[in-house]
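Onboarding guide, step 5: your first structure request.
Type a short instruction followed by the sequence, for example:

Predict the 3D structure of this protein.
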Amino acid sequence: MQLLPVDVDGQFEPYCILVATQPIRCIDDNTSEEVRYWKPEDGRPEKVGKYRGVSGMRIDPTKVGGAKVSRTWGWTIALIVSENIKNALERAHVTGARFEEVTGPSAISQEERERNRKLLALRGQTDAAREAFWRTLGKLDEEVIIPIVVGGGWPARRQVWRVIHRAEARTLLVTDGLLDFFVDRVEPSVSFGLELALETNEPLTDAERSWPLLLLERVGNELAEHEGVREKVKAGSFPWRSLARACPSLF
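The system replies with structure tokens like these:
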């Protein structure tokens, strides 16, 4: 690893940035709660074979060797430190650090892991089909990452939005989760049977904090929570001009 000296405005004591220079391929796919890889059909050739998502991570200590500080190969979000480094940081009352155990038995049972694998396969199928359709509407933005909201009334309990660039400098914001399978059933479905789209010609320098995204989010939540509103929208009989009356929580 490297320690790079840096100056911090308003501070006189020395500071360093720690850089873990060599990632180690040590994630244990079989004992981790969930791992997902980038695939060729995802449209990101530079990422194929690397981890797209890791949760409940477990590592194989035998592959770490004598490294005290390292990054995990393919998932550099995680910074792995040895137990004695953790203890030293805690004794020094270092702030801003949160430690999670990544060795030892998995926190979930084999039955839970098998269920998660089925959910992962369903998610992959759903995402691939939906993303293929989004690409027919324009250029799907791979760089704009709108953080996923976990929970709520959406079918798979994850709320996602995507950004699509269209001709004449127009931007299409779409929901990306109202068609997810129902997570409690662990079976293929189109759940609510719809996604929402909102197109604007306004420049969106920060889509995540824009009013179109806020509106799309709130309308999506209203549809997820009220079957009567969903059915009217699907039937094409919903009078959008009366949105304020039908969905007062939006305003």
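Each response can be followed by summary notes, for example: Residues 124-250 form one domain.
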